[in-house]
Amino acid sequence: MIGTQHAKTMAAYNKWQNTSLYSAAETLDDAARQLDRGSFFNSIHDTLNHILWGDRMWMSRFAGTPKPTKPNFAGSVQEGGAWADLTAARTAMDAEINNWVASLDDQTLASELSWFFGALQADVSKPMWFCVTHFFNHQTHHRGQVHAMLTAAGAKPDDTDLFIMPEGYLD
Length: 171
Hints:
Elements: H1 4-26, H2 30-34, H3 44-63, H4 83-103, H5 106-110, E1 112-117, E2 122-127, H6 128-152
Antiparallel strand pairs: 1-2
């Protein structure tokens, strides 16, 4: 089982890496961000939208926050909308995640989380610590795709090594 410090570290890492990716993506024009680059969600923009969608879905389960605006996986690539709206939504979501993990305790992480999973059309129950691990893993997986697309487009996102995360992110 993970502990609360692990969740706080991963939330800080999430914010750092999102700041890096969005800053690098900002150096590209909208057409370059929306260009189909052959990844699972096609473009930089669509993949960043999907990450936001996933974060909103999981945070609705974890903390009772509003569910994504797009009700299903297929719509996830439109979750944040246009670039300025997506950027603002990402910043707000990262703050929400950090606030939530600050309130986590070991009892919550040891509890069971139950929800209806639309893709399976079934009720699902898993340990909270397992779901939190998946939550951060999902972000990291798709950010890796975005990092590769940005690099191929000539943008320069930060390194991704956790151990070099700047001090200010983990307070």
